[in-house]
Amino acid sequence: MTVRIRISRLPHGEGLPLPSYATPGAAGLDVVAAEDLDLQPGQRFAVATGFRVAIPQGYEIQVRPRSGLAFRHGITVPNTPGTIDSDYRGELKVLLINHGAEPFAIRRGERIAQLVPAAVTLAAFDEVEELCVTDRGHGGFGSTGQ
Fold first, then answer.
1. Please, what are the domains in the chain?
2. Per-residue pLDDT tens for 5-26?
3. How far is CA 115 from each of CA 66, 92, 93, rounded to the nearest angstrom?
């Protein structure tokens, strides 16, 4: 299934590739940086991509880390997956954090994250007095691994 997403290039995005799939089996579209910066250890920064999108209602775009950057340098998306809502029309920026021990150079045109379009399921809550009982009950964090 293919979802059509309108994209508008900003002036600082001129000459950059649009998000694209690296291989026929890829789930995420690679997105590149539209600016240069050195991300210091522990630093977070919203990296410009140079474009805006109009996502169809009923969909979102999830922003996910690139596995190679995470593995080799500790560069990741701290709120992974980040969500771009269908009604957002500002510049798409990728929030990155450097969990590595060394500064990491981000250069214009380099791949920094993956974008994954996804269908949105809406929820409606029905308030009740009691919930059904389960074997797990109130067991929380780590309770099923023992």
1. 27-120 (2.70.40.10)
2. 999 999 999 999 999 999 999 9
3. 10, 11, 11
